UniProtKB/TrEMBL annotation:
This is GFA family protein. Keywords: Metal-binding, Zinc. It comes from Bacteriovorax antarcticus. The keyword Zinc applies. Residues 25-134 form the CENP-V/GFA domain. It comes from the Bacteria. Belongs to the Gfa family.
Length: 138
C-alpha cells in the first residue's frame, strides 16, 4: 500500500472505532517563525523507514487541508521535493525543522497535510500508538 493510502486508512480506522474526538493543537518549527494550528485526533502516528523519514525521525499524522491553518511563516518555508516529487517537504529556512508537509491524496485532487507530531506543543507521545510503515521497500 502506498504511503498516503496507508495514512488515510489509519485515519479511517480512528473513525470506525468511534473515537474521533478532534482537538486543536499548536505546532511549528524550533525557532518559532513557522507556526500553525491543527485539529486532529492524537491516537495514531506513523513511523516510516523510508530514506527521508528515517533520517528525520518524524512521527506523522495525516489530515485534510481544512484542519490545518498556517498562522505565520509562509515566507520562511523552503520546499524540498525528491523521488516522484509528490510530497512537499516544507522546512524552516532559519532553523531547518520540518514541522509539516503537503501532498495529494491517492486518486484525487484533495490536499493532505502531513503533520510531524513531534512539532506539536503539549502532547504526550507515550499515549500515541505508533504504526510502522515500511516505506523503505516500496
Ligand atoms: Zn524555524
Amino acid at each position: 500500500m502506498k504511503f498516503l493510502a496507508f495514512a488515510l486508512e489509519t485515519n479511517r480506522w480512528k473513525k470506525i472505532n468511534g473515537d474521533y474526538r478532534m482537538k486543536k493543537y499548536l505546532g511549528g518549527c524550533h525557532c518559532g517563525k513557522v507556526q500553525y494550528e491543527v485539529e486532529l485526533n492524537l491516537k495514531n502516528a506513523i513511523s516510516c523507514n523510508c530514506s527521508i523519514c528515517m533520517k528525520r525521525g518524524s512521527l506523522l499524522d495525516f489530515i485534510p487541508e481544512s484542519q490545518f491553518k498556517l498562522l505565520c511563516g509562509e515566507n520562511e518555508l523552503q520546499d524540498y521535493l525528491f523521488n516522484k516529487k509528490l510530497i512537499h517537504h516544507y522546512f524552516c529556512k532559519n532553523c531547518g525543522i520540518l514541522s509539516f508537509g503537503k501532498g495529494i491524496a491517492p486518486g484525487g485532487t484533495k490536499e493532505v497535510v502531513a503533520i510531524n507530531l513531534r512539532c506539536l506543543e503539549g502532547i504526550n507521545l507515550k499515549t500515541i500508538t505508533i504504526k510502522e510503515y515500511d516505506g523503505k521497500s516500496r
